[in-house]
Amino acid sequence: MSGSGGIETMSFSNAFFEELGRSPGIVSVCDEAAERIAEIARATAPVKTGAYRQLIEVQHGKRAGRHASEVVAADPGAVAIEARFGTLARATLKAKLR
Fold first, then answer.
1. Under 8 Å between Cβ of 75 and 87
2. What is the pLDDT of residues 6-55, one digit of tens each?
């Protein structure tokens, strides 16, 4: 126990978490989750012209040195569609329940 009321201090190795975030297992889990969300979003997207649904995609990149997968809708009207229907937000919640 420390002298601060029993609270221990911890330090984390940023290098460890950066390496972990780039590891093949973590990259695979992130990519699979993003693809699952994108599939659900496409299946539940409102369809007027089909453009919104067709332009839902997964983008891969790095954030703070770690792998990141992001589901985006590249349709110019995506903000308005998402505000009204919440397609990507709902797909994320549905994917978590599987």
1. no
2. 788 888 878 887 788 788 998 999 999 999 999 999 999 999 899 999 99
pLDDT of 82-94, one tens digit each? 999 999 999 999 9
DSSP string, the chain: --TTTTPPP----HHHHHHHHTSHHHHHHHHHHHHHHHHHHHHH---SSSHHHHTEEEEEEEETTEEEEEEEE-STTHHHHHHHH-HHHHHHHHHHH-
72 conformational bin, left if phi > 0, alpha if psi -120 to 50, beta if neither? beta
Locate 48 and state its tokens. Answer: 């007027």
